[in-house]
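Quick illustration, no need to memorize.
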Amino acid sequence: MKTDREFEQELMASGMVHFRMLPDDRDSLDRFFAEKDVKDSAPLWDGREASAFVLTGNGSAVLSKDTEGAVLLSAPARMEHWPEGCPEDGDYCNFGALNASLIPSRSDWRAYNRIVFEVYPRTKGMHSPMLSLQLYNDGEVKIPDRYMREGFHTVYLRNGRWNTVIWEFPSLPRDLVTGFTFQVNSYGKELSMEDVISVEIRNIRLEAVEQVSHTLGWETDPGLVVCPTNGYAAEGKKTAVTSEEADIFTVVRADSDETVFSGKTEIVVNEKGTFTVCDLSVLCESGTYRIKCGNAESPVFTISGDPWYRALWKAVNYLYSERCGCPIGRGHGTCHTDILAKHAGKTIVYNGGWHDAGDVSQQTLQTGEVASALLKAAEAVRGKHTALYARIMEEAAWGIDFVLKTRFGDGFRATSAGICRWTDGFIGTFDDCAARVHDHSFENYLLAGVEAEAATGFRTMDPELSDKCIAAAIEDFAHAEKAFAERGPELPSFYEHTYNSSISLYHAVAARTAARLYEQTGDGEYEQAVARHLAEVMNCQETGGTGGCPVRGFFYRDDTKKTIVHFNHQARYECFTECFTEALRVLPDHAENARWRQALALYGEYLKCMSGYSAPYGMQPAGIHKTDEYLDSAVFELLHLLTAYEDEKENYKEQLENAAKLTPEYVVRMFPVWFSFRGNAAVHLSEGLSAANIGACLCDEQLTEIGREQLYFLFGRNPFGQSLMYGEGSRFPALYGALNGEMTGAVPVGMETRGNEDVPYWPVENNATYKEVWTSSVGKVLTLIAALSK
């Protein structure tokens, strides 16, 4: 772990994050893999004949002239046509790939648990060289799986040097391996790149190591105590978990091994297994420590009154790295100047804001929500960390600029574009992309709220921008009210992260925005809108007894109270709390004040009830489900992308059967019901944010603690002992950054489950969706840290 001085020097070297912070892999999971003892090895290629590689796609494989025993793979960075099978408009298309495959004779690889090789990227001007790997198995379990997730792994490389790649795959079936492929992807050229992508590969071998990290289940690795690897807040509950049996644990100083605290462990036995819990809550002294428990030990961690200071800087670094449309220091150049949005005879270039994820697609709403998260984080550090506050506000201004830029002024706005390539930047060539444009009420409701929030945030720093934001917010809210009254909810493209929005969510977002507009204007019309929309939200809340439900406080999709609100990818549970907390903040004397507080208290009651299922890790469960909801094909189509109801109906049923039973009609899932799109970071962080919001509003420490627990889980107090923020804490895994590579501060879509199970699955494989970096996840981290600061 870096010292405070080393971290501040790193910040200065990046120009206070005006160049990408260089990844530090000293505490990474990859470094941990490299230090393991190898007990057996077998070569996969003898380095003599390039013809051993079977090629498909565009490119070549020849023996290297520079390195003995190496193969040189070369592929064009881009083509002048789309690959076969792509849509004519190139929506979500790249330029193909070179696949170079070794074809073993139906081999059994179970004696080995990893592949190791060395690779030398030789592509001038490429900031983040990548190489994709694919394993094919035709045994009892087929790889790839039906969703094309399993068996794929992506590695990021340093250009112009040899890199040692280690792919551990303990959880992958490999009883009948039929192929192993190196894939060089043609994602186009960033501004500084040459035309051809080339990599040399040598010393390809299988290896067996004695101990591999587990990837499935709730137990911890042998010898490991799991804790938030970047540290605990000085206040509140502080626990660590291990599967090691011991009666006593000690906390020692990291630098001297001096014991500062000893305590009795607690044994927790539940449906997840048997765990030893170390409670060090009484230790509040700032410092750097380790926990020892029997033969197990934790990574180094801190206790601090400001435990997430570095994480905030790193989150800003990640967002800066994801900027679209401007040069990024040590990253890509100006990009996507040929993505066009057209409406009513007008055309705008649809670049700016932040790329949605690793794939450089773009969604206006996503940028708006991230800008909102930054504004909240800035307010949390204002007066405490001057440089951090200014840098967060600068990044927020970049996002707000995009929100304003994409408005056409008549209710229509550019909303998204499906991009997974570097385009050539010339308007009029074949790789141009058309952005989607519409005037749906949900986007206008939500983005009007972001604009109103920005008006407050920039009032003193940039009053001119503040004035523009409030004017835009007033206009956009009016368009939303009119469209919603006339047309009700509308479906956008299913690629947009608003596709699953319920009527109750529409009203929650509308009420939140109306409250912010009332704060800005004092106009009684907005006060009336707050009360009207909140009445509709409360009509959708379970207050007790509906259909024999044993739990109350959660929300349904509409006032028929038939379908419970669930999220399984993008999540907006916090909207159901922020609509009330904002109303209570700006209308403290309103006649409905008591009912609004009661609605919050009921939802808090529900969150507390669900948290009872979270021991010993604290990850908030996905929530309550009806056992017959799998019969609802209409809602299925809204919640589950890239899959079909009839194909998944029985899988849905099985996932509900594998959940914790409440009654014959209701169950609790730890993880969402899901199929192709998996990863729960946004889900449990959104629930934690809801708890923190209510905790702050109602002064409920138990709810505040639930919020804190979600950050602890994310940063390493999870079954795998890994920090899910790249470059923060320790034992952080490689993440799928796609075109942008490794970005310090990135957070992925999140942990998944295997098949229809309801236990955590976190394979080493670096692939979408679960390990794909996502601005939404980072936005949730920022907002939750801000909420806990209250």
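The mean pLDDT is 96.
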